[in-house]
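Quick one, tokens below:
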């Protein structure tokens, strides 16, 4: 039997998770062909969900955009995955039909899927591209459909297109293509703002509904979709929203690589009308820096060949081109950014009398309870990024200890010592705790520096009773340098917690305001009951580095101290 002190030794093994040696980053592009809806009379609105397996559990990593009324979608959204040589990284691609009424998956139809391992990557000299080969096949039931999932392993080829099977029969028409490309090492991104004027009118009773697609032309002459703008309805002089794309995705770091741009007139049936096209390079687009503009004639080759007086089908204008440095989590930490860790522990009556061995708060002389396991596993990691290693610790309705900051061992000792003195009660209100940490994070924004990022760890056993206020608090906190980690202790129904996570759609306040960014990670402890502290810590903290980077990069805030190696990663002027 382990003594209580041994849990510190176990948790110590989790140190360095954030610094795990990522060998490289891989961008995954997805397209589907011939997918069909459950309703044969309509076309699906497909979306691809990327999930990653960790300790037997599947967690959503990201999802593509939803493409309306389309059976052959080519998604512009990229998945970026860290590749670790020493780990078996299992990925799952799920295709769902997301209706226009919602973005969640509860009512969506599952259209097929593919599982793979992000395995051996051998970088070719010219084509640093990787692809997929079949390993194993099996069937499963989901939403009244039975599909075959294909296990694949990424090797040093380029891409794989594979049909999905239904009910174990021969391949049908539905297929998915995954192209994986190793990032070149340049993490910079470019911000582009396009507009157009005098585009051809393709509609009889209204004006065209234009959108713009940008394709990168690869060395083998194939074309890869880089970005698709939104549709501007009924407008021949559209101004599309500013968008950001990585330099690697745009041109693979080659400023002279050809880019093909196509303007379409959107149609609700998915059969969009071609307006015109033009070619450019990133080098040419950089002419739109510092307030200048770059313009291209939008040409329809058929019109040009047939019409003698044909000039163009409109003018496309690049109004802005800005290059932004994409800093990493390590850049901010090495620049002096401190992780301010706060703990909040649930002392509601639903946990049971701490003196009773059935209580979730029961203190066993040899075996730590679930609260302590979660607290130590996560706290040991976070304290390594805080210079004084001292944390504010709160209880729902009582602070422990009053007006005092303690280290992780101090939190454990305070937790154990306060339990006999407390009378557990309810309800489970967590909005006040989020608001309190958010107040400190809000004060930090006044510095306009990457000095402190706040992580709130909430350990709770039950359903939140102030859900509306909690949603409001999270939406507000999403604008601040702050993340919220919720660990569900016990066997309660945590379905509401999943909604706060934002993985099943976009979290909104009661007034309808969406979160600016996903800052909540929920993990039920029961999924890691028999796993190591490292497994739990890795799961709950997995999203934090990206959340830190997303916040500061989104605000244009650089690390306080620029490291020497950064100059070698900056795009040459």
């Amino acid at each position: 039997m382990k003594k209580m002190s041994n849990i510190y030794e176990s948790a110590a093994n989790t140190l360095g998770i954030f610094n795990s040696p990522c060998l490289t980053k891989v961008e995954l592009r997805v397209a589907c062909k011939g997918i069909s809806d459950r309703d044969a009379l309509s076309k699906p609105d497909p979306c691809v969900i990327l999930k990653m397996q960790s300790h037997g559990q599947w967690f959503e990593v990201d999802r593509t955009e939803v493409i309306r009324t389309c059976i052959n979608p080519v998604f512009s959204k990229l998945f970026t995955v860290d590749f670790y040589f020493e780990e078996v990284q299992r990925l799952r691609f799920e295709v769902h039909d997301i209706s226009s009424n919602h973005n969640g998956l509860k009512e969506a139809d599952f259209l097929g899927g593919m599982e793979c391992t992000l395995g051996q990557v051998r970088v070719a000299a010219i084509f640093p591209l990787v692809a997929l080969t079949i390993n194993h096949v099996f069937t499963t039931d989901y939403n009244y459909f039975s599909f075959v999932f294909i296990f694949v392993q990424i090797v040093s080829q380029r891409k794989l297109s594979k049909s999905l099977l239904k009910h174990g029969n021969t391949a049908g028409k539905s297929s998915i293509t995954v192209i994986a490309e190793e990032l070149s090492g340049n993490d910079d991104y470019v911000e582009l703002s396009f507009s157009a004027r005098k585009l051809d009118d393709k509609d009889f009773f209204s004006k065209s509904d234009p959108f713009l697609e940008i394709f990168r032309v690869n060395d083998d002459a194939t074309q890869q979709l880089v970005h698709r703008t939104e549709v501007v309805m009924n407008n021949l002089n559209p101004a599309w929203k500013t968008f950001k794309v990585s330099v690697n995705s745009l041109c693979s770091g080659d400023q002279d690589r050809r880019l093909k741009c196509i303007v379409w007139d959107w149609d609700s049936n998915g059969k969009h009308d071609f307006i015109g096209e033009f070619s450019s390079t990133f080098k040419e687009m950089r002419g739109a820096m510092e307030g200048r503009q770059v313009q291209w004639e939008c040409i329809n080759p058929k019109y040009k060949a047939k019409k003698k007086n044909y000039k163009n089908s409109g003018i496309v204008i690049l109004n802005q081109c800005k290059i932004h440095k994409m800093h990493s989590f390590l850049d901010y930490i090495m620049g002096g950014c401190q992780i301010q860790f706060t703990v909040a522990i649930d002392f509601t009556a639903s946990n049971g009398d701490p003196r009773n061995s059935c209580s979730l708060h029961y203190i066993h002389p040899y075996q730590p309870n679930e609260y302590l396991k979660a607290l130590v596993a996560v706290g040991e990691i976070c304290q390594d990024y805080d210079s004084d290693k001292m944390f504010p610790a709160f209880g729902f309705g009582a602070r422990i200890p009053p007006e005092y900051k303690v280290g992780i061992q101090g939190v454990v000792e305070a937790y154990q010592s306060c339990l006999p003195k407390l009378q557990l009660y309810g309800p489970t209100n967590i909005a006040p705790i989020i608001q309190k940490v958010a107040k400190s994070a809000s004060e930090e924004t006044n510095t306009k520096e990457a000095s402190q990022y706040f992580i709130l760890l909430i350990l709770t056993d039950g359903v939140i009773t102030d859900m509306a206020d909690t949603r409001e608090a999270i939406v507000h906190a999403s604008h601040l340098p702050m993340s919220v980690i919720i660990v569900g202790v016990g066997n309660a129904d945590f379905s509401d917690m999943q909604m706060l996570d934002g993985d099943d759609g976009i979290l909104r306040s009661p007034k309808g305001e969406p979160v600016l960014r996903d800052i909540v990670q929920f993990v039920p402890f029961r999924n890691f009951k028999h796993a190591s502290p490292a497994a739990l810590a890795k799961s709950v903290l997995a999203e934090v580095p990206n959340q830190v980077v997303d916040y500061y990069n989104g605000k244009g805030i650089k690390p306080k101290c620029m490291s020497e190696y950064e100059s070698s990663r900056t795009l040459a002027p």
